[in-house]
Predict the 3D structure of the following.
Amino acid sequence: MAGFDIGAAFRRLQEEAVSFINDESLKVSVKKLYLMLSANSIWDTSERLPGMLTDTYRSILSEIRPAVIRLPTEETRLILDLSYELATTGRVRSRALETDQEEDVLQLFQHLSKKLPPVALPSVADNEDTYSHGALNSLLSFFFPASDSEYHLWWANRPSPGSRERRGVREANKPDGTIMKEQFDVAFAEIKAPKDDNSTCLYIQDKWALTSLAKDTIDLHLRERRTISSIYCLQVFGYQLAVYELRFQAGLYMWMEVGTGYLPRDMNVTHCLIRCMELLNTLRVILMLYDNQLKMGPKVFRD
């Protein structure tokens, strides 16, 4: 990668992190999370490694970060038209469209017209379950429907098989949501409602949970002889939606941001869905590449 010895630089980071991590007087922070991840052989690529020049850092990120797939121009125009209609009339009328993809977008907006408030409500009104199963579920289920035999979103607070195998049933991490292919976990979601989006501690806890879930799941796939070396994660924190990848490469786990979008607060700002839909569509396309790998090795069933 750009001729830079990442392994040596990462070992220096781990050595520097030891005293910081063990200092219990230091409060939980994004910096401390970065160092804690390094102790678990995870490089959070949001920061450079020791001795890494800015140009080298940018070159490495451009090499390893997945490219976000843009929506077709016709779909983008339709989304903008539907967003304007929803903002000005409070509803979305049926219409004749040329493609199945455009019909799906229309159905999504018709669902959202029933889920989103006309104006933004106070954040304290939402708890995590209410938020997850409202407009957010309409958006995620658009890409990963529960009835889909391919990749589907499963809302369940149950231990993932990888985490359960490593940590035991009692200590296993329980994601808010799991994207599955048949019985295999391929992506995880952690959700916090808008009322919690000013809590740095909760943000860090969710990111720590996602990295742990992803690492344990990669390890399980590799032990079961499935060549799945990347796991993807969704972190919805208030109105922010971020997609991450944890990739195992050359003996190192690399945590990287694929992209970030913002969810609509009400009917007046649904145009922001374009970025979210691009990120989720990119995730769906990437996961479809797993089909052959998931057919390899013994199967692992949930209890």
